[in-house]
Amino acid sequence: MQGELPFRATGLSVGLSVLIDADNANANLVEPLLKEIAKYGTANVKRIYGDWTRPQLSSWKDKLHKFVIQPIQQFSYTSGKNATDSALIIDAMDLLYTSNFDGFCIVSSDSDFTKLACRIRESGLFVYGFGEKKTPEPFQKACDKFTYTENLEELEEKEGQKSELSSTERKAQSSAKLKQNQKLVNFVKTAYDSITEEEGWASLGELGIQLNKLDSSFDSRNYGYKKLGGLIRAINIFEINTIPHEKNPAVKALYIKLKN
Predict the structure, then answer these.
(1) Is the pTM of this model over 0.85?
(2) What is the C-alpha to C-alpha distance for residues 149 and 230, in angstroms, rounded to an integer?
(3) Cβ-proximal residues to 208 (8 Å cutoff; 6+ apart), any chain
(4) The CATH fold of domain 165-258
(5) How far is residue 149's CA from residue 153's CA, in Å, rounded to a whole number?
């Protein structure tokens, strides 16, 4: 699976600590955010940091009870100083030292958490970042996987526009546009070249992992596709072979090979 923890496939329980910067996160996206996090493991800790005396955070209050997120109060003692960030970082380090977690999810578009992400990874744990596309690149690169929160939004207007075109027309337009994106095509080819096996075949799952190693913010949804397989088919530079799993024929493994 694209962006998935490597040891998830072993069936072991993956414990995650979710830390949210309320000043830099959208309360309306909390439900899709937690669904996304559930792909990577179980959120054993869910904390959100902010000055809850401020009216700007009122939109979060109903969400806290519904999704069982623990609010951490941090007063802004000095104007211009972000005490919330400091509180989140201190708690993250305390949680790190407990050795009870396999990874951390940091929800913020603030570059102040770049060093924190680096420190957690130095300890051998995974870091998943969630923030807007405007998030400074250093924080994105410091994470093992960075997901744009815009991809979590349900864009009803765009869905309505898509319905005006037939499925065939949409696929044709999308494929033609992606083929012209030489940067994307070269990026996918680079990842493919580094994992290709005998006779040029490579696992789609391995490709997804390699793409995220090269760019932590890579996501097929950035290009309008929910799954990596859909994006690869649209680029249309690979042969695709579907092979049933040896022990479970109902599970299909996808393999790709660069077309001649």
Answers:
(1) no
(2) 20
(3) 1, 2, 3, 4, 228
(4) Nucleotidyltransferase; domain 5 (3.30.420)
(5) 7
CB-CB contact of 185 with 179 (8 Å): yes
Annotated domain spans of the chain: 6-152, 165-258
If DSSP codes are grouped into helix, strand and coil, which group holds residue 197?
coil
Distance CA 39, CA 151 (A): 15
State pLDDT tens for residues 162-188: 444 445 555 555 677 887 899 999 999
> Which two tokens mark 116?
């924190």
Half-sphere exposure of 171 (CA within 13 A, CB side): 8
Token pair recorded at residue 7: 């040891």
Could you give the CA distance from residue 76 to residue 51 in angstroms, rounded to a whole number? 7
Buried b (16+ CB within 10 A) or exposed e, 123-152: eebbbbbbbeeebeeebbebbbbbbbbebb
CATH topology (fold) of 6-152? Rossmann fold (3.40.50)
Could you read off the pLDDT of 19-45 as tens digits, one per residue? Answer: 999 989 999 999 999 999 999 999 999
